[in-house]
Write a structure and sequence with these properties.
By secondary structure, the chain is α+β, with helices and mostly antiparallel strands. It is built from 2 helices and 2 strands. The termini are far apart.
Length: 79
């Protein structure tokens, strides 16, 4: 028999609105970062991550993503 274990998801949705690197108009993007709370998702010290630990890590990833410049799809084809 197979047993399926579903771990609790911890999602964080981030949105950014930045100027296009090609034309200068605003580019809006949205992305969801997520991890699960499970016994295999551990910190560097070997202790399983809590919801707060995961949210801090996801916030760091979202902040790094928001700092990256974006280009419209049409502007990418023109370059």
């Amino acid at each position: 028999m197979y047993t399926t274990t579903r771990f609790e998801r911890v999602p964080l949705t981030a949105t950014k609105s930045v100027p296009c690197t090609g034309c200068g108009k605003k580019v809006r993007r949205q992305r969801t970062f997520e991890q699960t709370i499970n016994p295999y998702n551990k910190n560097a010290d070997g202790i399983p991550k809590s919801r707060i630990d995961i949210l801090h890590e996801l916030k760091t990833q979202a902040d790094a993503w928001q700092a990256v410049a974006e280009t419209h799809t049409k502007c990418e084809g023109e370059s």
